[in-house]
What does this fold into?
Amino acid sequence: MRRINVCPICSSGELSHHSEVIDHSISKEKFTLSQCLNCDFLFTNPQPKAGDLWKYYESVDYVSHSKTSQGFINYWYRRVQKLNLQLKYNALKYYVPRGTWLDYGAGGGDFVRFISQKRINIIGLEPSETARINAHKDGIKLKPTEYLNSIENESLACITLWHVLEHIHNFQEVVTSLLYKLQSGGLLVFALPNHLSYDSQIYGANWAALDVPRHLWHFTQTDIQNIATQHSLTLVKTKGMLFDSFYVSLLSEKYQSGSKIKGFWNGLVSNLKASKEQNPFSSQIYVLRK
It folds into this structure.
């Protein structure tokens, strides 16, 4: 395990104990969350070292790396996936300039295939060999993340990280590396859970999108705005991911032996509050321009 002593966003060493969370989905181990007293950034601390993280992913239950539809939640996830891909594309298409796209942390490669079908050139990078093999079986060619070094600087029009940034140990360094590859006026896009959402408030430590220890960092819109300022980026759009609140609430109910009906209801209420009040959505897309 590695302990974080300095906030990776504001560099403050003033950290406090926030809570303890169980890895419900795979290891059943307990992990601690720390919070920066200066900027309120929340993160898992201590964290598994990079070489040890793989064991928390290698499971058919980790749905973004597998193709399983077994179980009600996974079946539902797969049914809405195509619509969710279209919603992601719709959030970007009016802002992105012409050129090649990059999907960083492509998982099973579904977004890469979807964008390719739009006759847009896209490169998919994925660190997990298991995920790359599964994608290849589906006819999707992904490259390891090291391939980023082979991409020409300022050559990409859009770089997407769909629920990826929260998994990266050295996320500030990775953002810097990605921006070297992005052309002026190009888009850097994050999709991230937001622990200030209404469904997070309902479930607390059982909120499935905490997903420790795979989620090393727990971002809010303020955190993303701070990162954007540090990297001279402009936040041009924020959009809620409507299906995520249902998926996360259903999974949270499963962790505490609750009901599917209650999960759907809490997901719906969370979306309604985010639409009509000041609450953030359970997951949000942040569109940043270089």
Notes: The domain at 15-289 is CATH 3.40.50.150 (Rossmann fold). The CA atoms of residues 89 and 115 lie 8 Å apart. The chain has a mean pLDDT of 92.
